[in-house]
Structures are given as structure tokens and as C-alpha cells.
Amino acid sequence: MSIHDMYSALADSTRHKILELLKKRDLSAGQIGKHFSITAPSLSHHLNILKQADLISSRREGQEMIYTLNLSVFEELAEKLVKFFTL
Amino acid sequence: MSIHDMYSALADSTRHKILELLKKRDLSAGQIGKHFSITAPSLSHHLNILKQADLISSRREGQEMIYTLNLSVFEELAEKLVKFFTL
DNA sequence: ATAATATTTAGATAATTATCTAAATATCTA
DNA sequence: TAGATATTTAGATAATTATCTAAATATTAT
Hints:
Two copies of one chain form a homodimer.
Chain A lengths: L2 H8 L2 H12 L2 E2 H5 L6 H13 L3 E6 L2 E6 L1 H16 L1
Antiparallel strand pairs in A: 1-3, 2-3
Helix pairs in contact in A: 1-4
The structure holds a DNA duplex.
């Protein structure tokens, strides 16, 4: 995924909040949804964009889908930013 | 300006290219425009968004407006990203 | 002053993106 | 196998954002 997709993913307040929530602990889609007043399909759309940008991952646990923050990708993003302004 | 505005500013390919151009040297709006196939008002719109996000600055030189990259703001942005994934 | 050049502002339209409802898929339990 | 719960997919609509044309502002030169 491109750095552009990452910025786009971060440039939405709902998605930004999702990342903040996942920073504390892994959460299911339903648990994440409780923090927003949008429908499940809308939330699923945002989760999908974050996944496309490789900022989060998901695994199935029974009926639930558990989402996790991909910390290593944030490191890469920070590195790219540092390179941007130092070169 | 918020980190959210910065991400939004970066999440557009035209604006991203503008920043790449300004990395090499300061440029007038007209010189920047030569690299794109959009009208002057559209370009002005993008320059304004980058200014709002504090990623660039402008000064007048005669009839021209010269744009400069605000490198220090990129440093701050990288710092915030590092904090995000280390805390 | 007037004309020419550079850029921005205002307002309308087009393109993109977020959101919704309805329906589909996957898993678990009785 | 049904029925219940969790989530996603499909397709339509609403909201946001990029783009355009026309007009305004600022500067320079005649």
C-alpha cells in the first residue's frame, strides 16, 4: 500500500478514533462500533479502508472479527516522513 | 492546525506533488502550476489547504506569490507519529 | 490613468467518499 | 436443521471536496 493510502486512511476523524481505540487493546468490530453513532456497514467500510492501508489487521474469533493495530506500519510511515524532510 | 488537517492536506496526490516540488526549491504559484493540468483557481485552492495545514508559507515578490515548504512542521508531524505508536 | 501579468475569490457543477437500508455470509447454540 | 448473533457486501443516496468559469485584487510597465 502506498503512503498516499495511509494518509487518506488517517485523514478521517472516525478512522483516527478507531486507531486510538485499538492502541489500547484489540477490539471486535462490535466493540469498536459502540464508540460511534454510525451503522455497522459504515463502520465496516472504515475498517476496510484501514486494512487496505495496512494500518490494522483482523482475525476471526468465533462469531467476532477482532481488529489489531499494525504498529510496525506506523514506524515505517514515520520513517518515510523523516526521510521526506531530511532529503 | 490539527494533525487531522495535516493528514487531509497530505492525502491528495496533487498536494503531495506540490510538496515534492517545493522540497527542491521555492516556487511561484505559476511555476508550480506548470506541472499540473488544472486551472489557476484549482491550484490556488490546493495551495490554500496546504497553507491552512501550515505545511507551506507564502510571500509576495512583485506580481508573484512565492511558496516555501515549512520543514519544521514536517518534523513535528513525524514526532507526533512516533509518539502515537510508542505510547 | 490604462493595459498587461499573476494570483485569488466567489459561486456553480462534477467527482469522490461516507452513510444508509436490505440482503448475504459465517459462526454458534438449541 | 433452525434460529440467533456478528459482520460484511451490494447498491442507492447524501455529504464533502475538487474543479471549472467569471470576476476581483495586486503589482508592474507604458
